[in-house]
Amino acid sequence: MDKFKEVKSLLDNTEQDAEAFYEKGNKAAGTRLRNAMQQLKVLATDIRKEVTDKKNAGK
Q1: Fewer Cβ close by (within 10 Å): the C or N end of the chain?
Q2: Cα–chain center distance at 56
């Protein structure tokens, strides 16, 4: 559950960069946004593995 909370926190912190990039064309914010999306991808992969491992441990 900690990783899920980390995903929520990362999304909350990235919202300003998304707005700055899409609405104002701020290129630096776009770079930060891309970095955050990569971190989200890694976290999502970790969460998927945890869920699969926990689900299969019950069999």
Answers
A1: C
A2: 25
State the Cα–Cα distance between residues 12 and 24, nearest whole angstrom. Answer: 19
Cβ of 14: how many Cβ atoms within 10 Å?
Answer: 18
Measured distance CA(57)–CA(59) in Å, rounded: 6
Q: What distance lies between CA 43 and its chain's CA centroid?
A: 6
Q: Which of 29, 10, 13, 12 is nearest to 21 (CA)?
A: 29
Locate the domains of the chain by residue range: 2-53
Is the entire prediction scored with pTM above 0.85?
no
Provide the pLDDT for residue 43.
95
